[in-house]
């Protein structure tokens, strides 16, 4: 039971505000609902306070922040719009909310950010993983429908951050230490291993410690007289277990060796690259689907629209007010908030109303005070965004967009190919927002 808690909810008349209103009701909790639009009156027994005002009005938001324990800031422009309006509502308006909350000593603020703050992030921006004993299994595919691209991971987001996009199979191109030894690790510049790499390969022919019986040097000379099964190119070594006949010209980065066990680690030479990883490494084959991890919730912003840029600014303001004044700030990168998925990209990014309430409740209980960025999505089978950050504060989503797959296909609006995870609208976080006109 909540005892004497008052929560200010801005944008209470909007889609999310209306959906959360009954879901956030608790004995002993008062919801102070603020919006410039009309708000439905209180139901019998409902503990709410109605404030008809704009959060952009300094006097109104100042009064609304008095005697509250937390602010849930949902107000603002909820889609693409001219920059002047976006700035006024989403950036300047959020600043006024934070200023008022700070003046009145409100200890906790939840800010509605959006997946569009990171809209141009792609599946290949996720850290690459080494499959382990607890690798998640993909959902059983529907006939004629591409299987979900469920990333291989050990229960949570990968601990490994690629170095300039060149790490392969958990091994850094610049000798960065990783969590756990890679059994088929390779050194990018001929650095010797500790003997744990049974099929390790040196990029410049540096000798190993003798434990690798079938090691091969980088210039195509077999160490033990065994012929290569894979084809090496431009001095890049290929483990004998590599898929036969795939050339590896310039794989990942100059001098970076490739684990031959990755049958799809074809370099960009001769392969159409969809985009590039940080550091310039080619993709669309360089990062196999099975090696893609989960995109961290706090990945750096890469907005897709003016709207997305404003949400990146909202996150920056939240970080500022936490660092300066100690306010507990949670930024929720809200996905496709609907009662059910309506488009193929929703299968990864859907947020159900019930899970939205669960996420808010977790943020209201989180401690100690901090600054956090969280994906606002449900436990979707096809998700490729990490839930680990939310789980760390007690978020336990229960809904899955996959349960609505049949109705999505039965609508007749989409073909099975529209569900391909490599399709542009599924490959980027922001989906179709990445191509819509600005403003």
How does this structure look, described?
The chain has about 450 residues and is α/β, with parallel strands linked by helices. It folds into 2 domains: about 5-120 and about 295-435, NAD(P)-binding Rossmann-like Domain (Rossmann fold, 3-Layer(aba) Sandwich); about 160-290, no CATH class. Helices cover about 20% and strands about 10% of the residues. The protein has 9 helices and 9 strands. The strands form 2 sheets. A 7-stranded parallel beta sheet has the order 3-2-1-4-5-6-9, with helices on both faces. The protein has a two-stranded parallel ribbon with strand order 7-8. The longest helix has 21 residues, at about 85-105. The model is unreliable at about 130-145 and about 150-285 (pLDDT under 50).
N-to-C SSE string, H for helix and E for strand: EHEEHEHEHEEHEHEHHH
| Radius of gyration (Å) | 25 Å
Largest sheet: 7 strands, parallel
Distance between the termini: 45 Å
Q: How many domains would you count in the coordinates?
A: 2
The second-level CATH architecture of the largest domain is 3-Layer(aba) Sandwich
Which structural category fits the helices and strands? alpha/beta
Order of strands in the sheet with most strands:
3-2-1-4-5-6-9
Q: In DSSP terms, counting alpha (H) and pi (I) runs of 4 or more, how many helices?
A: 9
Query: What is the average per-residue confidence, as pLDDT, rounded to a whole number?
Result: 74
Shape: globular
The strand count comes to 9
**CATH class placement of the largest domain:** Alpha Beta
Q: Which percent bin holds the helix content?
A: 10-25%
Low-confidence stretches: 130-145, 149-286
CATH superfamily of the largest domain: NAD(P)-binding Rossmann-like Domain
